[in-house]
Design a protein that fits this description.
Layout (H helix, E strand, L loop, with lengths): L2 E5 L4 H12 L3 E5 L3 H5 L7 E3 L13 E4 L12 H23 L7 E7 L9 E2 L9 H14 L7 E7 L1 E3 L4 H10 L12 E2 L1 E3 H13 L5 E5 L5 E2 H12 L9 H17 L3 E2 L2 H5 L9 H9 L1
Parallel strand pairs: 1-2, 1-4, 2-3, 4-5, 5-7, 6-13, 7-11, 8-10
Antiparallel strand pairs: 9-12
Length: 298
Amino acid sequence: MATILVTGGTGFIGRNLCQRALDTGWQVIVLTRNSKAAAKKLPPAVQLIERLSDLNPDLAIEAVVNLAGQPLAEGRWTEARKQNFIDSRVGTTTDLYTFFSARDLKPSVLISGSAIGYYGPGEHSVDESATGTDCFSHRLCSDWEASAAKFEKLGCRVCYLRTGIVLGDEGALAKMLPAFKLALGGPMGTGEQWMSWVHIEDMLSLIMHCVDNKNLSGPVNATAPNPATNRQFSKALGAALKRPAIFTMPAPVVKLLFGEMGEELLLQGQSVVPKKLKDSGFEFQYPNLDLALTDLLG
């Protein structure tokens, strides 16, 4: 039985990924700061460790899926919070590299988190070949990917998952639902900013596809093939809930409430397409927003 090591395993994506990996025959180990708390969130079959040194030196780790990172959209970005974003991503990845570089048994593949924020704001569709526009999100993702790239020195195949908005029973969609259910939802700013999204089931499938597909490496856009504008997304969400979605939040209000976070994550966006995944033969179960929302919201 092959073994996969997951960081960020108690998060929205991580918890679901652990179950998916178990269901497909993997032995799953999760690196966590609090094993007692993690045990309440993860399947009993998951092995929990609080230090990398707890790994059996004779146990081969075939794959590492590195999802650790403080959530970006939980509030205003202070300088202290920005540093936490960096430390929890770059710092964790660097610790992984330091550990495995000194270990005899190296992983075959590292699937390391990143985000579509790498590209910065833009009006035109981009794939993995695009360069980024300078902003905090781009610098954060760029540094995160650079820390993961060190694994190539160990003979490890590396994929950077440039992830969009993951739709499921947690995360961004769950935060939107209360307002939309009360018919108080609607576009933000102009509503013309792009939202590149992916259904949680497709997210799990594409991660395992990256683990298994030896021809995939470098940046991989973890987004559905059909991004939507914020206005289109709001309309589709309202329709799925059978509620109007007409209450616009003006850009100055968003900036006042959320500062730099609101400007980069809510008022700006990227139209991102998953060229590498499509070229590799990956098929999305939920390629269209209406289909995804209908599945998630009944």
